[in-house]
Amino acid sequence: MNVLSLILFIPLIGAAITLFTKSREQARIVALVSSVIPLILTVMSYLEFNPGLAFLKFQFVEKISWISSLGINYYLGVDGISMPLILLNAILCPLTIIYAWGENKQSNQFFALILVLQAGVFGVFMALDFFLFYIFWELTLIPLYFLISIWGGPNKDYAAIKFFIYTHVASLVMLLGIFALYFSTNVSTFEIPVLLQAFSDIASPEMRAAIFLALFFGFLVKMPTVPFHTWLPDAHVEAPTAGSVLLAGVLLKMGGYGLFRVLLPMIDGLGPYRSDIITLMAVLAVVSILYATFLALAQRDLKKMVAYSSVAHMGYVMLGAAALNFMSVSGAMFQQFSHGLITAVLFMSVGVIQHSAHTRIIGDLGGLAHKMPKLAFLMMGGFMASLGLPAMSGFVAEFLVLTGSYITLPVFALLAMLGIVATAGYHLWAMQRAMFGSYNEKLGDLHDLAFYEMMPMAILVLLVILFGVYPGPVIDIFDAASRIIPGVI
Amino acid sequence: MSIINLMSQFAPELILTIAALAIMIIGLGLGAQEKRVLGYIAALSLVAASMIVILRGVGYVQLEGVIADSLTIDPMSQFFKLTFLLVSLIVVIASIKEFDNHSNQDEYYTLILLGTIGMMVVASAVDIVTIFIGFELASLSTYALAGFNKKDPGSIEAAIKYFIVGALSSTLLLFGLSYVYGMSGGLTNIGELAVFFSANPGVIQTPIGIMALMLIVAGFGFKMALVPFHMWAPDTYQGSPTVISALLAAGSKKMAFVAAFRVLLIAMIAIKVDIALVFAILAVLTMTIGNVVAVSQRSIKRMLAYSSVAQAGYISLVFVVMSPEALTGGILYVMSHAFMKTGAFIAVAALGYVLLKENSDAKEVDHLDRFAGLGKRSPFLAFSVMVFLFALAGIPPTAGFVSKFYLFYAVLKGGFLGLVIIAILNSALSLYYYARVVKYMYVLPPESPEKMKLPIAYTIAILLALIGVLSIGILPEPFVNWAASAANVIGL
User: Fold this and answer.
1) Distance from CA of A35 to the nearest CA of B (A)
2) How high does pLDDT run on average in chain B?
3) What is the 3-state secondary structure of B219-236?
């Protein structure tokens, strides 16, 4: 069996076993083991991976005929665009499981769902057949729907169903785009690389633009980009911490991944609509960055603030993609990777605060650092990375995106830079009011991080610093990939 | 063709006939307690018949002779026969517990087998008279089955509504078919009718021809429960014993589709355009109204009934597109829907059975509230219901997704983007009411903390449907190929 299939199916098998465990102890051990094995396999394949191979030269390829009459195959493979994201998913999942070590409500189902979610995300990043891609894309909805609706907050019903239907509709629009691409190209296969190469041969430019927009819509909602972001804050606020971590950490990355995997290679084929669509992407990106940043500034709920900061940070991914030069594109890809790590720390911090102080309202907190020094330290790390402090991975990503974007989209890059100021503002302000100053005695006696909470957060902060100081291992791969995407200059 | 040869070709039907007669005779000598054995006989005969259909495969057999001119054996008939046999098998297995100790079990199983034979006759029929006979055999059996709970006024009401509407639709259909017979100068064979109408397309353009067409469409429309001919379906599905609702929604309704595929697509191929517009309107109305009304239902049986109406709307897109791919998608959809719907109804029946066992005065055992906390009380039942409902909504990796994918693919290939968009919006809307049941099962607390003990008969029946739904979803290739060769028969 191919290594990618192993990485993909071990979490699924683990999920099935976890479901039948009898106690919390068994459930979490089985879950941890079944997410650590894919991590080991991923790291091994990462070391073996050759970033020098050109775009559309996939590695670790596996192809089995599935529905031959439609040209559908079980077709897996990775290249520079997907490999680091697979690594991200492989890292985040075991850390999330460790963080949720104390989960005692139906814990076997809880851990099983996390594993299913992980498998779905792996599948999206590995699939090279649109049918398979769509199946995994949809498969990720179900576990998250349950994670929100069973373990969620007071308004979970609304948030879960809104998430499910909103993103399902977007997926269906994407499916229409896939069908349209399939029919317009006459290559009789659902293989993504083949369809992408055939895209520019479609005669009608209107048809090409329509296909592009349909796929774009699917990715926009997933990322999410303003104005299609409204499901996200609701989902985050109601989701349990582990759900939020995976939602922001890897699920949103599926949308960004779609940009690089599917849309950028198409962009030169758009013909007369090319510049209009690039402008549209840039406008959406800048609106997302500014609008979400200012909303974050206005939030009283710490978790909602972090949720809006995710929307803004994903805006940089879109901006980098729209700018279409290899610096901005590799920066955008790196932003995906880096934001996955950083946002996990942020949501974990908020989760700890919620858990021990029983509130997330910034105004009701205050001086937590006195009682929770470890949390304060790690949370500070996350916040600094999120606002883009040098020597943290967030800085590398944003620097590359903004510098790169300035070359091709100067006006938009300058507007986006305005967002950085406000980003620093809300992070520091929230930190100052929640963590520092005098202790709010109403909160009672708080306990600091448990070991299982501290360990994943500490690992993540270390990784954020490591990739901030030495981004080479990841960014070289992205850089090589971005240079050979057609359309990127 | 010798009579022996002919009999061997129709061995599945003969086995069921013999079993039906045997059940009736053996039943005379048994007390209510012992009559359970009749269910096993019925199940065995269905298993044997299905095995023969499967072993015979998808081949095409040329039949000749007096009877055989009206019947055929081709991939289409085999595909639908297998669908009907499996649906009946699942229903019979579930009934073994549902009607345990019932004094009329002999009639019950006989009627199910006779109904199945009727459906199989329709699947094989290439003659409008034979189709009608098969239809009536299946309908008469199911009228009685719908009213099988004699003491329940709901069941009686269901049966009466079903009977009156069924009789009316049969009349309309017969009326329309008799015009066709007259116009063609006495032809009943579908193939010959097709030749006649394509040679004389003017005949159907006359007022009487259009009248005939409308009558046939209305006749089939009632049977397929297309809006606006659907009014009977929710009441009948809700009032009937739940296992019979499964048979009605997954079996006898699908019979109407195979007949419509043969009659409308083959015999009326010359007048393609006129039918396409009518069916486009019917399909859009059916899926939209079915889904919109389903949203407000609190009774799961009623919700499933409206969802069944909506799903019929998707399938009837085949009559609009009229391409081999669309027909393949439609045929695949029929089998997928048969598994999903049977499974869902049987699961509701199982829940009702257990609830009544716990408390014989339990009311509204199919109400949404009864599903609260089912995930804790019976993980297997809740998981199965979830799979069936997500399959109905078209979430991968289930039969519902594959068949919707194929059908929408084909409709798009036919160039009907607008229809696909409407269907897709409907599909998204349907997710709301399916997911709501799932939410009730897994999120809300149960009414009673005790674990549910599910009788083994239900478990087997649900498991069979589950295997069907998942195997089409995960390994669709053989089913798609079979459906494609079935669609080939029509020669669009």
Assistant:
1) 22
2) 90
3) HHHHHHCCCCCCCHHHHH
